[in-house]
Amino acid sequence: MTVLDLLLDPLTYGFMARATATVVVAAAVCGLLSCWLVLVGWSLMGDAVSHSVLPGVVLAYAVGAPFAVGASVFGLLCVVLVGLVRDGGRGRVKEDAAIGVVFTTLFALGLVLVSVTPSQVDLGHIVFGNVLGIGTAELAQVLVIGALVALVLLVKRRDLTLYAFDPVHAHAIGLSPRLLGALLLGLLALTAVVALQAVGVVLVVAMLIIPGVTAALLTDRFVRRLVLAPSVAVVCSLVGVYTSYYTDTSTAGAVVLAQGLAFGVVLVVTRLRVARQAGPGRTRRSDRAANDDVAAPAA
């Protein structure tokens, strides 16, 4: 069997073709958004939104509605509630505490709803993903939402980047940091819905954070990160999909594991490169200090 056969064989099955398309779209969108999430420091917010959509998914399944609708509503609700809890505490409740309270409460609500509707909802598919069971309608939802998020990010990339680097300067030139922050959070909620289709509630945060962190290790230029992060995410996701197919393992787990391994490799290579560059400089500084110490008594 040739390499081309290995690449094309899984795609001859309809369910694998849909799964691959879903994972690629989710990886690209998550990778793009992750650049801003890492820059702003919203890793925990990504975790919160991804877990908070669970009750929305359960309710959507229970009433027969598209689960993307329920997930989007509760994702946005999480964002609103975090702001209310943080601001309502009059400075006594920090943002990380507000996030912890809101997302654990909403996730617990989702678990309760699952327990009272066991016949309609498969908890395993929601929590760990069921990308191999993606239908044409679900794939269409992923494509539409993913395209919308990517389009908004690309159109507003300059404003969002300025907001992420310096909200004060953004306000000084006439932009609204509050509106830009709300826009970014809204896009986060929609992106979580897309990623949920691929890897489930638990692993969404990995797809939202790992690509951005990996790209940050590779370059200091933010524009380059916007290219590297989705590229790395897509390549790793394809590796995960094909690995899961030929080894008969969890697709969601293989996708996230591939991204995690890529991050580990980049981290090790970066550390080695930094150590190699710093080595000669340190040696010269040490020699210079030693010579000064020897010359001091003679003076």
Automatic annotation (TrEMBL):
* Positions of the UniProt region annotated as Disordered: 280-299
Q: Which GO terms describe its cellular component?
A: ATP-binding cassette (ABC) transporter complex
Q: Give me the segments passing through the membrane.
A: 21-45, 57-85, 97-116, 128-154, 175-195, 201-219, 226-246, 252-274
Where does the UniProt annotation locate this protein? Cell membrane; Membrane
Q: Does the keyword Transport apply?
A: yes
Q: GO biological process annotations for this chain's record?
A: cellular response to iron ion; response to zinc ion; transmembrane transport
Q: Which UniProt keywords apply?
A: Membrane, Transmembrane, Transmembrane helix, Transport
Give the InterPro entries listed for this entry.
ABC_BtuC-like (IPR037294), ABC_TroCD (IPR001626)
Q: How does it sit in the membrane?
A: Multi-pass membrane protein
Q: Which SUPFAM superfamilies match?
A: ABC transporter involved in vitamin B12 uptake, BtuC
Q: Which family does it belong to?
A: Belongs to the ABC-3 integral membrane protein family.
Matching PANTHER family, A to Z? ABC-TRANSPORTER METAL-BINDING PROTEIN (PTHR30477), IRON TRANSPORT SYSTEM MEMBRANE PROTEIN HI_0359-RELATED (PTHR30477:SF24)
Q: What is this protein called?
A: ABC-type Mn2+/Zn2+ transport system permease subunit
Source organism: Pseudokineococcus lusitanus
